[in-house]
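Hi, does anyone understand the following?
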Amino acid sequence: MILCIDTNTVVQAIAEQHPFHPILDGWVTGQLTWAVSTPILLEYEEVLTRLSGPSRWRKLARLMDLAELTSGNLLRVTPLFQFHVVPPQRRIAFETPWSSPGNRREVC
């Protein structure tokens, strides 16, 4: 199975006692392939460094490199599409059938 793991899941899964830790265990044991792109790796680095310090990111990056070289269960991908934040001046407002009259919500 090939997975792209959300940054919040990676942060939590590092703790051995966390319910998400089996995801990383499955990857380390070769049951899962972890798909990553440059943007997601940069996000992992930024968040892990901010929350846990640079050494935590370096350990994970080394583990990823090792897995790629030895077991091939790290898949580097290039995204074909990227979402962009819609600037506030281009947002639209709408009313839903379940909202009270006049209760407008902004969406992209």
About this structure: The first strand starts at residue 2 and ends at 3. The beta strands are 2-3, 33-36, 74-76, 92-94, 105-107.
